[in-house]
Design brief:
alpha+beta, Arc Repressor Mutant, subunit A
């Protein structure tokens, strides 16, 4: 990433971002929890892109160079924690589940960052306890390092609705199907169909945040029917896309 700036304050705050607005690459000395009260927040590092709607949060470890992007009208809540305070015990970015209690804790804790009252300190204690038990969620698009894999991923991202097989994509890029299959497993730890589902969910969340109807999103992202899309979305994100669209 270029134009990296160092932010020594690891800010705890709440702010609003317009659709498409970005926060350029930067890093903090402290850990940070990134949460979207509405819209979808996207966090990108050299290793990949993590994305989260309102029932997920992104954990960004101290020192990680990262950038933010808003999809839909984003209510962004940031919680900083000292580098020696790592409740989820994670050394790399991750998406964590956010239940109703953790959501309210994040909103309350970021309401007044200057508040140093004992009551706010107790909020942080419970918030840390919730982070410790929050399960990770597979909402990441890893960045390919092999140029052959990068070319195939770019084709899929450019056409989320495309129904091309791995053999089709290999023919378009001059790479054998078996080689590509091996690269997906080696670099991403998943099969091509699994990665493509992640890619489609990423595009779907962006479109829903922009207010597109569920049926339109389903077809633009390659699902054969709205019901198939709803099923995958619910299993992956814990709620149907209509709920996400209303809160965005």
């Amino acid at each position: 990433m270029s134009n990296i700036r160092h932010d020594p304050t690891a800010p705890t705050c709440a702010r609003h971002l317009s659709a498409g607005e970005r926060i350029d690459a930067h890093r903090h000395d402290d850990h940070q929890i990134v949460y979207a009260g509405s819209g979808v927040v996207e966090v990108t590092t050299d290793a990949g892109t993590w994305f989260a709607p309102g029932n997920r949060a992104i954990w960004v470890p101290a020192g990680t160079v990262h950038a933010h992007r808003a999809h839909g009208r984003l209510e962004l809540y940031l919680v900083g924690l000292p580098a020696d305070d790592n409740p989820p015990a994670l050394d790399s970015p991750a998406v964590l589940a956010v239940g109703p209690l953790l959501r309210e804790l994040i909103l309350a804790y970021t309401r007044d960052p200057a508040d140093d009252s004992p009551e706010r300190g107790r909020l942080l204690t419970v918030l840390r306890d919730q982070l410790r038990v929050s399960p990770q969620q597979p909402l990441k698009l890893p960045t390919p390092t092999d140029p052959r894999l990068a070319a195939v991923c770019a084709l899929v991202h450019a056409d989320p609705a495309g129904r091309h097989t791995l053999a089709d994509l290999g023919a378009a890029t001059g790479v054998g199907e078996r080689t590509l299959s091996r690269l997906f497993r080696h670099e991403f730890g998943m099969t091509f169909p699994q990665w493509r589902t992640q890619s489609r969910l990423y595009h779907a969340l962006r479109m829903l945040a922009d207010g597109l109807p569920v049926t339109t999103v389903a077809h633009r992202c390659g699902w054969a029917s709205a019901s198939a899309f709803i099923d995958v979305f619910r299993r992956s994100l814990g709620h149907p896309p209509g709920v996400h669209r209303r809160r965005s």
